[in-house]
Amino acid sequence: MSKNNIEIELRFPLKNADAVIARLNRDAIKKYENRQIDTYYNAPHRDFFARAPSVDDWLRLQNSDGKYSINLKSFFPKGALKSTHCDEYESGIENMEALEKIFAALDFKPVIRVDKKRIAFAFKNTEIAIDEVAELGTFIEVEYDCDDDCTIESAREYLYGIVKEIGADVGEEYDFGYAFDLMERQGLVKGWGGQ
Q1: Residue 145 near residue 85 (C-beta atoms within 8 A)
Q2: Which of 65, 155, 182, 187: disulfide with 8, CB 3.0–4.6 Å?
């Protein structure tokens, strides 16, 4: 995540994960490899999913191999079907069980769980993650640590170049997040085809 809390990323289905991982093992710095279990919540005061497929805000608790965090992503432009970036706020938490009890007491409801194995690399001012997501498949996510002088458009263009440079054989850009895709598959929200 960028130091200025603005996240600019691209995500694609990845067809040649082994080749991309081999390239990144050779030319990038491996940051971590772990299993992440993300639980997404809805709020009692505002239904985050009322305007699906446009979902502006996502609230998540994450268990990353026993390290816990809370995260809020607020996507822009508001109300759009395809976002260009988001504000992201994240903090580690010491006691996941206590926070889950606080959420329950305040009537925040768990909506969907995403289980993924992630390998992340640092490469040319980007973080590149290869995700194996239960029930969905393999994806590549490329995020740019944008400084104060970059624009959203220039950052996205740079990310497309990185995907090409590392030889990633990708499908169409993945506009859904993993959580939304799983929610749609379970009939909890309507996606692009439901309009």
Answers
A1: no
A2: 155
* Beta-sheet pairing, 6-13 with 137-144: antiparallel
The alpha-carbon radius of gyration of the chain (Å, integer) is: 17
User: From CA 156, how far away is CA 133, in angstroms rounded?
Assistant: 24
Q: How far apart are CA 150 and CA 153, in angstroms?
A: 8
Model confidence over 8-17: pLDDT tens digits? 999 999 999 9
The DSSP bridge partners found for residue 11 are 141
Assigned token pair, 170: 């990708």
Distance CA 50, CA 67 (A): 31
Q: Name the pTM for this structure.
A: 0.89
Distance CA 194, CA 175 (A): 15
Q: Which residues of the chain have pLDDT under 50?
A: 1-3, 193-195
